[in-house]
Write a structure and sequence with these properties.
The complex is a heterodimer of chains A (597) and B (572).
Chain A lengths: L11 H10 L5 H13 L7 H14 L1 E7 L4 H15 L3 E6 L13 E6 L9 H10 L11 E7 L9 H12 L3 E2 L4 E3 L4 H17 L25 E10 L9 E7 L12 E5 L4 H11 L6 E3 L6 E3 H7 L8 H7 L7 H7 L1 H8 L4 H7 L7 H7 L6 E4 L10 E7 L2 E4 L2 E4 L1 H8 L6 E7 L14 E6 L4 H13 L5 E7 L2 H4 L3 H10 L4 E6 L9 H7 L1 H9 L3 E6 L1 H20 L3 H13 L3 E5 L1
Helix pairs in contact in A: 8-13, 11-12, 19-21, 20-21, 21-22
Chain B lengths: L16 H7 L8 H6 L8 H7 L4 E5 L4 H6 L6 E6 L6 E2 L1 H13 L5 E3 L5 E6 L4 H10 L16 E2 L6 H17 L6 H7 L25 E4 L13 E8 L2 E9 L18 E7 L3 H15 L10 H8 L1 H12 L19 E4 L5 E5 L5 E2 L7 H11 L3 E4 L5 E6 L1 H14 L9 H4 L1 E3 L17 H14 L9 E4 L13 E7 L2 E6 L10 E7 L1 H18 L6 H7 L16
Parallel strand pairs in B: 6-7, 7-8, 16-17, 17-18
Antiparallel strand pairs in B: 1-2, 2-5, 3-14, 4-5, 4-13, 8-9, 9-10, 11-12, 12-15, 14-15, 18-19, 19-20
């Protein structure tokens, strides 16, 4: 249809020119032209264009409606209102607060919150995580986000609508702009809720043309490069014990802030931590030797100087005894028994087992040993490496770790792993820890996202698989995934249980088999579960699956390896040698990767 | 109203989602088998939990650690409660021993005697459910229809003056219970590995494929004891004894305790007597009443679905006419009866047949061993020597019945050895107290109940002592939520939880379970509770009339108005 004065906003001259031009344009040219014209609408031309521009602006804004609901009222309202918003041409997504990724918060444009209040002013269960996130130090600045809150409650309670009030206040504190005043509803909430949504719809409609100009992030100034030699001091964001009450285990989930570190890592890499010795241990040692904790000692060849206490805390290893160390210290004591210990391998080994420097100094005095002299004999404290449990794509400025606490008693003293003990007892959120990234090219996801992946891990060996799945979720990788996990008890030791459950539901994880060794009379481990699924497991391998094993070498990886060889034997009719060759070939092709310790 | 004018099943609006779940369940099978095989979660899906109730089990979790576990990225500590079907609360010593052992092996080491005269076992993990139910089955116990939209455990009086009549009344209760059992073999297939019934080969002649709109409760009382709180039942039978013979039963319809805070369309209600039937007509009568509720109950709003709302909506007269029409015969006029109490009689009593009964005081029905009080072990030992039966009372206590003179001595020795109490050293208030389970396992609880009431009573006892009221029988009941498992609306003093540490306080129920109480204060904490009750107890001690019960006193002195029907429960 050609343009006429009556069916277009153009005058006669314009319509003639346009009618000449338009039929000559090909598709690409038309598209280009429409984009060109649309981009320049602020010059202010006809009314039709203005309307179009406004509609475009409406479409670019996105409304997120989050609900916290205990009895289902808020959920029902949220679902109803989302329909209403959509009818008004708005893009809306509705989510249960529990399902919402708080990290998306700073990207929100228009945020609507509908929440009830539970009990004595507490958030409903499914709002709790989001609530705590907002009130945590990790809550982002929300400049540019607009929001409004609808609160449901029961005025017979003292803290009427408290959760709604809290959200309202906190969002404001974080810099978000309240575009419709909060409404607090009593048990008979329907009318007031209706008023609120009408205001919201009205306001979103009229405010729509204020296009939000997202400023591009300013390029980061080139900062220092952090390495093993120059570790980054990362703030601890979160430190959780993953084991439930009554567990024999303690496994720490640590979240560290890497913002401004420009540290990069891939799933499968490790993070190094420089631990700090236990203060109590250092103090006991200094007291035993009657040294001055403030005495200056030389750290290294460069002549760096620290107070003795600080040096023992942060720079030297005092929890492990070695033969060279004992030999070096032997001349400083007149106690002949130390000679005897050093006389044979067996006596030395027996002594070293479960003892530390404090034991040695206490057991073999009197010493003629100065603090500086001791320091010169000690090893630098080595960093501990942990498989990273997060994907950087999913957590851009963070790194997560899964650390099993080592705790035992020996020779009359409770002992703690240096680093794991620090993580368990001396690493509060807000504190800092020195870290660096250790690449591990031998534990990497297949480049082809459609290749099947089998992951086997026990205990903290599960860590890199969390990173794998986070990464695959971000990438939208399509290949099947299968996780085998083992621990002691289902109820208390199912590490990251709710996360695997979510991934199973969302299809990021295709299947999962678990082995809890102490829940039944007969002990069941991951290799037993693999053997039970022998046929399918072999089919996966034949279909090109990548198999990963992570965790304890002595107790798990060896048994898993044997199970794997047996599975290949049984399912393919190969001989033992042939099956071993098959597995060796998998390894050669990088389809059998291990991170064992 | 004639048949052609029948109201539709759905009084308003579309059926509740639960109706669809039942309909699609293939007579209560659903996907329970598959759900119990899923090893990644200790829970089962939400819709399956609703079907599981019909099998006598609720999925619960330890709410004390729910938020803690959430932070730990662990799912809630899911566990299952199994409620036994035990008509009239009668169990053999062997059955007692089975439950005792099971609670140690798979449960949380305790047993709860419920306000409906049965055992509840808490804390069973998913993987142990089948084993638990199979062990119960070996002891001839089941949990079919102990929960769900069906007739629940049939209650029956445990304190007959005449043992023969009790036996007869109990047998009728059992027949009613058995007659109203669902006919589906789902329970036997799922838990007991019975061979599968071919599709379409089964039906539910009484219930139909969607069962009842809501739970249904039946209780049988033998005057003068109203221990079963017969008026709190959807359907109550009051035994009429003439010339030492059971003549039949008065029929009472439309009682129930549950309500929803803030929703005045919901309320507790007492049943109303509509007539009398001969003893041998009780099963038939029960069935027809159930079918009226099946056909006329509200299936679109579960909060308004109990039989009491059906009765109040259609009228007592209409119910009677409809019942008579379904029965094909007319009810006789109700006979006289008189209740004088609803509590238990503790200690040893001698029955007409010369045997002895002994009732133990079990605080809130919780059977457990504590360092200083080895209740569970003591009762286990008695179960090993007792030859009569155990009777779980509607007040959460337990009675050992049918003890011969010869055995009495042996049992008394065990009672002494373990110091098993008949409550005598407690105040009469404590002996007349009841609390539901509530936190941490009950998913509905808004406030503590079982874990809190004893300590509240400690404090009230001090006050009662001060005013010389320690031996005054006052019924005090607490529920963690308005569903009212401890029948709080029949407490002379009633508490219903609203939030942690906060309760609505009700006053003025009848001592014989014949009058509802009324709200006195909303949302108050312990300090205020004690303050209010101190004042009332003081006045009660000074100004009560001769023999006046506390529930009557608070009405006479104007603390609350008397409630004559549940429909006025909320009116001011």
């Amino acid at each position: 249809m050609s343009l006429q004065v009556i069916n277009s906003p153009f005058n006669k001259e314009q319509t003639e020119l346009l009618n000449q031009l338009l039929p000559t344009l090909n598709e690409q040219q038309k598209i280009w032209l429409s984009g060109y014209l649309a981009a320049g609408t602020d010059s202010g031309s006809g009314a039709a264009q203005e309307i179009e521009a406004e509609e475009t602006a409406v479409k670019t804004r996105h409304v997120t409606l989050l609900y916290g609901s205990h009895t289902g009222n808020c959920q029902a309202l949220a679902e109803d209102f989302s329909g209403r918003l959509k009818e008004n041409g708005l893009q809306v997504s509705v989510e249960d607060m529990d399902r919402y990724k708080p990290k998306s918060l700073k990207k929100e444009e228009d945020l609507l919150i509908i929440t009830s209040t539970h009990g004595d002013g507490d958030p409903p269960d499914n709002a709790l995580s989001f609530y705590e996130f907002l009130y945590s130090r990790r809550a982002p600045k929300l400049d540019g986000v607009r929001y409004s809150v609808l609160a449901l409650g029961d005025s017979s309670y003292e803290y009427f609508c408290q959760t709604g009030k809290d959200f309202d206040k906190r969002l404001e504190e974080l810099g978000a702009e309240r575009f419709v005043e909060r409404v607090d509803c009593d048990l008979d909430y329907e009318e007031e809720a209706e008023d609120w949504i009408n205001k919201v719809v009205h306001s979103l409609g009229t405010a729509a043309e204020e296009k939000k100009g997202k400023t591009a992030p300013s390029p980061q100034a080139a900062g220092p490069v952090y390495t093993k030699k120059n570790p980054f001091s990362a703030e601890v964001l979160e430190n959780i014990n993953l084991n439930g009450r009554g567990s024999n285990k303690e496994t720490r989930h640590l979240e560290l802030d890497l913002e401004d570190s420009s540290l990069e890592y891939e799933p499968g890499d490790s993070l190094g931590i420089y631990p700090i010795n236990e203060e109590k241990l250092v103090d006991q040692l200094i007291t035993l030797m009657q040294w001055d904790p403030e005495l200056s000692v030389t750290l290294n060849k460069d002549g760096e100087v620290r107070a003795l206490r600080e040096a023992l805390l942060s720079h030297f290893e005092i929890t492990v005894l070695t033969k060279p160390l004992i030999e070096k210290l032997e001349p400083f004591t007149s106690n002949e028994k130390l000679q005897e210990i050093l006389a044979s391998k067996e006596t030395l080994q027996t002594y070293i087992e479960g003892r530390d420097l404090l034991d040695l100094l206490a057991d073999f005095g009197p010493w003629e040993l100065g603090a500086e002299e001791l320091i010169q004999q000690l090893r630098k404290i080595p960093p501990r490496l942990y498989s990273i449990a997060s994907s950087r794509k999913a957590n851009p400025d963070e790194v997560h770790l899964t650390i099993g606490t080592v705790r035992y008693e020996s020779h009359g003293r409770p002992r703690l792993g240096v680093c794991s003990g620090q993580c368990a007892e001396r690493m509060e959120p807000g504190g800092n820890v020195s870290v660096f990234v250790q690449k591990n090219s031998n534990f990497k996801l297949p480049e082809d996202g459609s290749a099947p992946v089998i992951m086997v891990g026990a205990g903290t060996g599960i860590a890199p698989y969390r990173a794998f799945l986070e990464e695959r979720e971000e990438l939208g990788a399509e290949g099947n995934t299968w996780l085998f996990f083992g621990e002691q008890h289902f109820t208390t030791d199912f590490l990251y249980q709710t996360e695997w459950q979510r991934w199973l539901k969302d299809g990021v994880l295709s299947r999962m088999d678990v082995a809890f060794s102490r829940d039944n009379e007969e002990k069941v481990y991951v290799q037993h579960r693999m053997t039970e699924r022998s046929r399918e497991l072999f089919e996966w391998l034949e279909a090109g699956a990548y198999l990963y094993v992570c965790g304890d070498e002595k107790h798990m990886a060896k048994d898993v390896h044997q199970a794997l060889v047996s599975i290949v034997q049984r399912e393919s009719g190969r001989s033992l040698e042939e099956a071993e060759a098959y597995v060796a070939d998998l390894r050669q092709q990088k389809r059998y990767q291990r991170d064992v310790y | 109203m004639t048949k052609s004018e029948q109201p539709s099943h759905q009084t308003q609006g579309p059926p509740d989602v639960m109706e669809k779940i039942k309909e699609d369940s293939r007579l209560l099978r659903g996907s329970l088998v598959e759900s119990f095989q899923d090893s990644i979660t200790a829970s089962i899906p939400d819709d399956q939990t609703k079907l599981l109730k019909f099998h006598g089990s609720y999925m619960q979790d330890d709410r004390d650690i729910r938020n803690e576990r959430k932070k730990q990225k662990l799912e809630p500590a899911y566990q299952f409660m199994v409620r036994v079907r035990l008509p009239g609360g009668v169990a053999t010593p062997e059955q007692w021993q089975t439950m005792d052992e099971l609670s140690d092996q798979y449960g949380n080491g305790t047993l709860k005697l419920t306000t409906r005269q049965t055992f509840q076992m808490h804390g069973i993990l998913k993987w142990n459910m089948k084993k638990s139910i199979q062990r119960m089955d070996q002891a001839l116990l089941d949990s079919i229809a102990a929960c769900g939209d069906v007739n629940r455990n049939v209650m029956c009086n445990v304190y007959p003056d005449q043992s023969d009549v009790h036996r007869e009344v109990y047998e009728w209760s059992k027949k009613v219970s058995e007659h109203l059992l669902p006919r589906t073999r789902a329970y036997h297939e799922i838990w007991l590995d019975e061979e599968k019934v071919a599709d379409g080969r089964e039906e539910e002649p009484i219930y139909g494929p969607v069962y009842l709109p809501r739970k249904f409760k039946i209780g049988v009382a033998v005057p003068p004891s109203n221990d079963v709180d017969v008026f709190s039942q959807d359907l109550g039978f009051i035994a009429v004894i003439e010339d030492d013979q059971l003549a039949g039963f008065n029929i009472a319809v439309g009682g129930g305790m549950g309500m929803t805070h803030g929703d005045e369309n919901t309320y507790p209600q007492l049943s109303r007597v509509i007539g009398f039937c001969p003893a041998d007509k009780i099963v038939e009568t029960a069935e027809k009443v159930v079918t009226i509720q099946r056909d006329y109950g509200n299936r679109s709003n579960r909060k308004n679905a109990r039989f009491k709302y059906t009765v109040d909506r259609l009228g007592v007269d209409w119910i009677r006419e409809e019942l008579e029409s379904r029965l094909g015969w007319e009810l006789e006029e109700a006979r006289d009866y008189n209740f004088d109490h609803n509590g238990d009689r503790y200690g040893w009593t001698k029955a007409a047949d010369g045997t002895w009964h002994h009732t133990f005081f079990i605080q809130n029905g919780r059977i457990k061993d504590e360092k200083a009080y080895q209740l569970k072990s003591g009762l286990r030992k008695i179960a090993g020597i007792h030859e009569g039966d155990f009777r779980l009372t509607p007040n959460q206590n337990v009675m050992i019945a049918g003890v011969t003179d010869a055995k009495k001595e042996e049992i008394s020795a065990v009672i002494d050895e373990y110091g098993l109490t008949d409550g005598r050293q407690n105040s009469a208030l404590r002996r007349n107290s009841m609390a539901c389970v509530a936190l941490p396992t009950c998913g509905l609880a808004m406030a503590e109940s079982e874990r809190y009431l004893p300590s509240l009573i400690d404090k009230l006892e001090d006050i009662l002592d001060e005013y010389g009221l320690s031996e005054e029988e006052i019924i005090i009941r607490m529920s963690g939520c308005p569903n009212g498992c401890s029948r709080p609306a029949l407490g002379e003093i009633g508490f219903i939880g609203k939030a942690p540490g906060k309760y609505n306080m009700y006053l003025g129920a009848g001592f014989a379970g014949d009058r509802l109480n009324k709200i006195y204060k909303e949302n108050i904490g312990e300090e205020e509770i004690l303050q209010e009750l101190r004042q009332m107890f003081k006045e009660f001690a000074l100004n009560r009339s001769e023999g006046e019960k506390f529930g009557d006193f608070v009405i006479r002195t104007g603390y609350v108005k008397a409630v004559s029907s549940g429909t006025e429960f909320h009116s001011s």
